[in-house]
């Protein structure tokens, strides 16, 4: 029997003794599923790539490619411990991991949606025809039936469910890569905060030495003023310089406490630990090495080495399959429904029924006039696909800019540190010479204090230069993906 109502068609078969026919039909329908793909064919967007990276003196001197444990290059056990703690306790990493679990569940749901749905439908019937006392007919015995199994399945001829599954798979991979990108950002931020704390401690020590020097210079100026050897303006200048240096101490202390609180928060510590944050120290800033890093052989490798770019590409791939899912709405949905049961003349032996029955039916539902709904859905999917394409291109552009900036910073900061090191050496040598002249009576103590102040200022500048170089190396590690590599099967 066939029914036709508008755009909906359905059919069913009479009860028959159970054969293998419905199972053959089911297997055939599974084989037909997804035989047509409506999603656009994906090709990774092409970019005009440079043949090589800009030259880097550090990379030419010694090559060290980034590894996923890149922070070990600084050879500081305290730093290694802090980064491991951050990766375990940071809230952003926890959020990214929870989202990964969500996308995994979505992928599992989309995968299960492609398989038949087997349910339980309990239906018991008893029927009998009673002809009364009519001698021409005899009463029919009771007929007992029980229907126990229900199976529904949508034949995916147009790849609708397959597109949904592939989109969910891409989102799952993309979220996995995004979590890796978050871990890279958290580890880089932890390293830079730790370096900042070490630099602030060094700056605080050198600034205290500067304050002590200014105090001596102020006392000397006061003695000379009382003796009438210098005018009052010299005394007032010394007072101003002392006050200026002293004012720097609480400023640096405040920056240090803020950095410690920020690090405790980044590590995911409790509010009590954050309020009482005093971070244990590892190496002195001066003893930390600057790892020489090379960006790799080919710039095109960056697309495979940055987890954020890999995540953006998976979002683009998912949007491609979403177009196929939307286009499938143009075509009818074909579904199968199957029932299994038994019929018996004896209610006491119904489960040993004389006849096992099955019923197989189906339906076709398709649009005739939806007044643009399907077309609007396709247009929306295409627009989102273009948005993801633009996001991916912007991400690639930003990535190459970050590498370029980090390489340039690495080169220029090395020159900056070298020149400041020369200045520190020159002022130290000058201080030694003046001290010798003072011991021979050819220089006064004021000259020694003045040169000592110059040495301390040079040391303070060296602390800043070392911090810049350390943070610059972290920026380069991060820009290059921190040693991350896309799995071979996904390239």
Task: Outline the fold blueprint.
Elements lengths: L1 E4 L2 E5 L3 E2 L3 H12 L24 H5 L15 H13 L1 H22 L4 E11 L15 E13 L4 H67 L5 H35 L4 H5 L26 H4 L1 H21 L5 E12 L10 E11 L7 H67 L5 H35 L12
Antiparallel strand pairs: 1-2, 2-7, 3-7, 4-5, 5-6, 6-7
Helix pairs in contact: 3-5, 4-5, 5-6, 5-9, 5-11, 9-10, 10-11
Structural account:
The chain is of the alpha+beta class and 491 residues long. The protein has a domain at 38-99 and 158-306 and 376-490: Outer membrane efflux proteins (OEP) (Up-down Bundle), CATH 1.20.1600.10. It is built from eleven helices and seven strands. It has helices spanning 21-32, 57-61, 77-89, 91-112, 160-226, 232-266, 271-275, 302-305, 307-327, 373-439, 445-479, and strands at 2-5, 8-12, 16-17, 117-127, 143-155, 333-344, 355-365. Strands 1, 2, 3, 4, 5, 6 and 7 form a seven-stranded antiparallel β-sheet that branches. Helix 3 crosses helix 5 (160-226), helix 5 (160-226) packs antiparallel against helix 6 and helix 9 (307-327) runs antiparallel to helix 10 (373-439).
What portion of the residues fall into strands of 2 or more residues?
Answer: 5-15%
- The CATH superfamily of the domain at 38-99 and 158-306 and 376-490 appears as Outer membrane efflux proteins (OEP)
The secondary structure category is alpha+beta
Kindly report the CATH topology of the domain at 38-99 and 158-306 and 376-490: Outer membrane efflux proteins (OEP)
Q: Give the CATH class of the domain at 38-99 and 158-306 and 376-490.
A: Mainly Alpha
Succession of helices and strands: EEEHHHHEEHHHHHEEHH
Distance between the amino and carboxyl termini = 53 Å
What's the total helix number? 11
The parts where pLDDT drops under 50 for at least 5 residues are: 1-19, 56-66
Gyration radius, rounded: 39 Å
Average pLDDT over all residues? 80
The count of DSSP E runs of length 2 or more, i.e. the number of strands, is 7
| Shape by Cα distribution | elongated
């Amino acid at each position: 029997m066939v029914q036709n109502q508008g755009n909906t068609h359905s059919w069913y078969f009479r009860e028959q003794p159970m054969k293998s026919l419905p199972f053959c039909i089911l297997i055939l329908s599974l084989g037909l599923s997804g035989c047509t793909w409506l999603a656009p064919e994906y090709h990774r967007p092409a970019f005009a790539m440079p043949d090589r990276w800009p030259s880097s003196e550090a990379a030419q001197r010694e090559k060290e490619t980034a590894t996923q444990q890149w922070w070990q290059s600084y050879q500081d056990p305290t730093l290694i411990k802090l980064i491991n703690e951050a990766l375990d306790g940071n809230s952003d990493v926890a959020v990214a991991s929870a989202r990964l679990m969500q996308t995994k569940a979505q992928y599992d749901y989309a995968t299960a949606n492609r398989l038949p749905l087997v349910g339980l439908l309990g239906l018991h019937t008893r029927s009998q025809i009673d002809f009364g006392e009519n001698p021409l007919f005899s009463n029919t015995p009771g007929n007992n039936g029980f229907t126990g199994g229900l199976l529904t399945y949508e034949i995916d001829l147009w790849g609708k469910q397959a597109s949904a599954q592939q989109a969910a798979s891409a989102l799952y991979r993309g979220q996995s890569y995004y979590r890796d990108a978050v871990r890279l950002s958290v580890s880089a931020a932890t390293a830079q905060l730790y370096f900042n704390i070490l630099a602030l401690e060094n700056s605080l020590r050198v600034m205290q030495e500067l304050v002590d020097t200014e105090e001596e210079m102020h006392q000397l100026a006061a003695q000379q003023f009382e003796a009438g050897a210098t005018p009052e303006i010299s005394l007032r200048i010394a007072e101003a310089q002392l006050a200026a240096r002293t004012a720097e101490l609480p400023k640096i202390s405040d920056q240090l406490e803020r950095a410690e609180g920020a690090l405790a928060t980044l590590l995911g510590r409790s509010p009590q630990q954050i309020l009482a944050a005093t971070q244990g120290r590892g190496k002195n800033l001066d003893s930390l090495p600057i790892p020489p890093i090379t960006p790799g052989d080919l710039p095109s490798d960056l697309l495979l080495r940055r987890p954020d770019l890999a995540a953006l590409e998976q979002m683009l791939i998912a949007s491609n399959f979403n177009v196929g899912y939307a286009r499938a709405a143009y075509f009818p949905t074909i579904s199968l429904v199957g029932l299994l049961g038994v019929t018996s003349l004896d209610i006491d032996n119904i489960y040993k029924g004389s006849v096992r029955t099955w019923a197989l039916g189906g339906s076709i539902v398709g649009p005739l006039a939806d007044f643009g709904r399907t077309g609007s859905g396709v247009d929306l999917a295409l627009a989102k696909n273009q948005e993801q394409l633009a996001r991916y291109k912007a991400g690639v552009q930003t990535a190459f800019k970050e590498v370029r900036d980090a390489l340039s910073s690495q080169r220029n900061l090395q020159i900056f540190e070298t020149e400041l090191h020369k200045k520190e050496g020159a002022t130290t040598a000058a201080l030694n010479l003046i001290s010798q002249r003072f011991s021979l009576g050819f220089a006064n103590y004021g000259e020694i204090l003045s040169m000592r102040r110059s040495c301390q200022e040079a040391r303070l500048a060296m602390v800043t230069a070392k911090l810049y170089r350390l943070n610059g190396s972290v920026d380069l590690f991060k820009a290059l993906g921190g040693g991350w590599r896309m799995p071979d099967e996904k390239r």
